[in-house]
Amino acid sequence: MYSFNYHTPTDLDEAIKIYENSDDPKYLAGGMTLIASMKQRLASPSDLIDLTKIDSLKSISNEEGQIKIGALATHNTISKNIEINEHIKGLKRLSTGIGDQAIRNFGTIGGSIANADPAADWPAAILSIKTTIITNKRQIAGEDFFTGMFETALEENEILTHIIFEIPTYFTYIKFPNPASRYAIAGIALSTYDKDVRIAITGASHSPFRASEIESALTENFDLNNVPLNTIAIEDMNNDIHASAEYRSHLVDVLVKKAVKDFLK
Questions:
Q1: Is 166 in contact with 66 (CB distance < 8 Å)?
Q2: Based on the domain organization, do 89 and 111 belong to the same domain?
Q3: Which of 8, 24, 46, 68 has the fewest beta carbons closer than 10 A?
Q4: Whole-angstrom Cα distance, residue 61 to residue 49?
Q5: Last residue of a domain, one of 166, 199, 214
Q6: pLDDT at 22 > cutoff 70
Q7: 82-112 tens-digit pLDDT
Q8: pLDDT at residue 75 tops 80
Q9: How many folded domains does the chain comprise?
Q10: Do residues 157 and 185 both lie within one domain?
Q11: Which residue range is the domain that position 78 belongs to?
Q12: Shared domain check, 180 and 148
């Protein structure tokens, strides 16, 4: 790992000032990805700006039918939160399935979605649930946030501060995990807002996406026998050492059917 300057600001203004006065800075949330990249010398920032001392970014609250989660809330904190378990309890299943205990203790929701790993779990929830991403500069609709593999709509020196989840009538997340990393070989998030069905896929492609054809079919008739199969083009699927594109396509169909079956129980 290369040498770097380490900063621990206690508010956003201080963090931004340090960033603006550094040569090649990086913001640090939980560090589960960035630190590993630095150890492998895939990243070599001149300055590391640790945001974990900014307590205002760790809160979770219920505000008029919306759950507002601070970007620095850890996966474990989210899984144990009373408001989340009462109103969007499927997020507990998602957060407890991430990595191992150490990762869940340090990894954050903001760090996960800002990194935009195509196999991460949180992006599926961001797209399936009606969400708004709050930064120090603006608001971004969740469906506009992910722009490509490891790419988001965040601009340089823009800090993700909160994520607002509009409480759905139902939400679940199911994945087929890589047995070593626990990343999703394929994962699906299903939410409903009355009769409106929203389904997002992660792990299967270069970036998370909405399964529009499946959504339309289930919105019209939410029935296990009405799940359309093979709707995602094979050429849009990842094909790597972990799973073939054909296998991932099959997994999407299996996981969607399981989610529908669970809902109908």
A1: yes
A2: yes
A3: 24
A4: 26
A5: 166
A6: yes
A7: 999 999 999 999 999 999 999 999 999 999 9
A8: yes
A9: 3
A10: no
A11: 55-166
A12: no
Q: What is the CATH number of the domain that holds 151?
A: 3.30.465.10
Give CA 2 to chain center in angstroms.
29
Same domain, 60 and 162: yes
Given this model, what pLDDT does residue 35 score? 87
* Chain centroid to CA 102: 18
- The answer on 116 and 141 residing in a single domain is yes
214-238 mean pLDDT = 95
> Mean pLDDT throughout 168-179?
97
Please name the amino acid found at residue 154. Answer: L
> Is 49 exposed, middle or buried, given 0-12, 13-18 or 19+ CB atoms closer than 10 A?
buried
CA distance 210 to 213: 9
Per-residue pLDDT at 41: 86
Closest CA to 223 of 188, 252, 195, 186: 195
Q: pLDDT-based confidence at 40, cuts 50/70/90?
A: confident
Question: Exposed, middle or buried: residue 20 (CB in 10 Å: 0-12, 13-18, 19+)?
Answer: exposed
Comparing CA positions, the residue from 61, 57, 168 lying closest to residue 114 is 57
pLDDT value, residue 1: 62
